[in-house]
Amino acid sequence: MVQQIGLLLQETSYSKNIRCYGFDMDYTLALYKSPDYESLGFELIRDRMVSIGYPHELLRYTYDPSFATRGLVVDTKYGNLLKVDSNGNILVCSHGFRFLKGEDVHNYYPNKFIQRGDTERFYILNTLFNLSETYLYACLVDFFTRCTRYSNLINGFQHGDLLMSFRSMFQDVRDAMDFIHDTGILKERTIKNLEKYVIRDPKLPVLLRRIKEVAKVFLATNSDYMSYKFHISSSFQPGGAKPSWHSFFDLVVVDTRKPLFFAEGTVLRQVDTNTGKLRIGTYTGDLQHGTVYSGGSSDIVCDLLDVKGKDVLYVGDHIFGDILKSKKRQGWKTFLVVPELSKELHVWEEKKNLFEELKRLDVFLAELYTKSPPAGLQVLTYRMDMSYGQMGSLLRSGARQTLFASQLMRYADLYSSTCINLLHYPFNYLFMAPPVLVSALLLFKLLHRKKHKLLKEADYNEPEEAEHEDAAEESCKCVSR
């Protein structure tokens, strides 16, 4: 098993400058077993959909972990699941479980492009919790497309006077997901079978203890006060002393309502740890160790811990709620947890021969200077993509970066499959950003060499030369960004 070690992506920094480490809970400190946990979430929201009136035939569907990946975009107008790049160019398109190609994609999107800014129509499924609802939505579209009782329309399905629009179906799925969280059904089912759904990692308390020796540590989670998660996360060897999980943190804040937490926030209250209920009034005192708080804001956290934005490294799994907002609004350093990296690296190791063949064909293509890649390259690229799952890699589609990958590169200072990998580094370690400009220069040289070779084979054409220079300049800009 290959471990993914964190890498600094934005700027060079000394970890010794970090005076405070913050952690999210779900999928960061509380680690869930995949695909069992996603399958549980799928079953609960599927059953909820049936209970509110959706056809009982939906109960035949079971969760398939090979289909969905994070970072997909739902088109609520046409019911499609889209994998796009940072500019909105469509890389993969599916309608239910039918993958659309060529003319079918152009019928929906003439330019193979979407306006991601249209948030009323397009919804980005960026979290690991989204995997269950992503698959359920595909099941709904698949079922109604096949069901002879319903007529297929461009914006949904018709049955008599009843219109099932793609937008309303997606909203029902979102409401079902909120329902299993808000009512505590998911929590109850998880508690009943902790061994099946929750990972006990004995290295986690070791990491938290080591961090606490050199810096302050806080927990800021959107979850309510669920003590079972904390006890699981602080598991020790059988028979060993088991200190209170409170001792690992200088500050614990639940119900933070991120990303609001990184803006104006909410009222800060104390939590009665015996009952889980909130105490009345707003807490305005100094930090009390061993106390659990609810709500508040990132500004309040910094005040209580006496730290500033650049002093903080925040670790979380949510690219938007944890990473983007903490960096843009507070200037915190960021560490994105991407559990899927373990699989990405495993595929890379297992299919190394395919990578080598792709590299060989890339060189061959560069020598030909042709616009259309050879058939062998297309076949190998497809085989490589399918090694990751039906939607391909989380980070790439062929040679192109996905939207998720571009967000990761832009907003995460560090990223890794697990925060436990911090144990591999001393706390005065220098994380060095990769020299991106070197790649840009190499690309410029390649394009420059290509241009001169073409000029030797054809008459001099000034407009054509200018066009090549513009292309080279634009390519370098893209790489530099």
From TrEMBL:
<feature type="binding site">
    <location>
        <position position="24"/>
    </location>
    <ligand>
        <name>Mg(2+)</name>
    </ligand>
</feature>
<keyword id="KW-0378">Hydrolase</keyword>
<feature type="binding site">
    <location>
        <position position="317"/>
    </location>
    <ligand>
        <name>Mg(2+)</name>
    </ligand>
</feature>
<feature type="active site" description="Proton donor">
    <location>
        <position position="26"/>
    </location>
</feature>
<feature type="transmembrane region" description="Helical">
    <location>
        <begin position="427"/>
        <end position="447"/>
    </location>
</feature>
<comment type="similarity">
    <text>Belongs to the 5'(3')-deoxyribonucleotidase family.</text>
</comment>
<dbReference type="Pfam" id="PF05761">
    <property type="entry name" value="5_nucleotid"/>
</dbReference>
<dbReference type="InterPro" id="IPR008380">
    <property type="entry name" value="HAD-SF_hydro_IG_5-nucl"/>
</dbReference>
<feature type="region of interest" description="Disordered">
    <location>
        <begin position="461"/>
        <end position="481"/>
    </location>
</feature>
<feature type="active site" description="Nucleophile">
    <location>
        <position position="24"/>
    </location>
</feature>
<keyword id="KW-1133">Transmembrane helix</keyword>
<keyword id="KW-0812">Transmembrane</keyword>
<protein>
    <recommendedName>
        <fullName>5'-nucleotidase, cytosolic II, like 1</fullName>
    </recommendedName>
</protein>
<dbReference type="InterPro" id="IPR023214">
    <property type="entry name" value="HAD_sf"/>
</dbReference>
<feature type="compositionally biased region" description="Acidic residues">
    <location>
        <begin position="461"/>
        <end position="473"/>
    </location>
</feature>
<dbReference type="GO" id="GO:0008253">
    <property type="term" value="F:5'-nucleotidase activity"/>
</dbReference>
<dbReference type="GO" id="GO:0046872">
    <property type="term" value="F:metal ion binding"/>
</dbReference>
<feature type="binding site">
    <location>
        <position position="26"/>
    </location>
    <ligand>
        <name>GMP</name>
    </ligand>
</feature>
<keyword id="KW-0472">Membrane</keyword>
<dbReference type="GO" id="GO:0046037">
    <property type="term" value="P:GMP metabolic process"/>
</dbReference>
<dbReference type="InterPro" id="IPR016695">
    <property type="entry name" value="Pur_nucleotidase"/>
</dbReference>
<keyword id="KW-0460">Magnesium</keyword>
<keyword id="KW-0479">Metal-binding</keyword>
<dbReference type="InterPro" id="IPR036412">
    <property type="entry name" value="HAD-like_sf"/>
</dbReference>
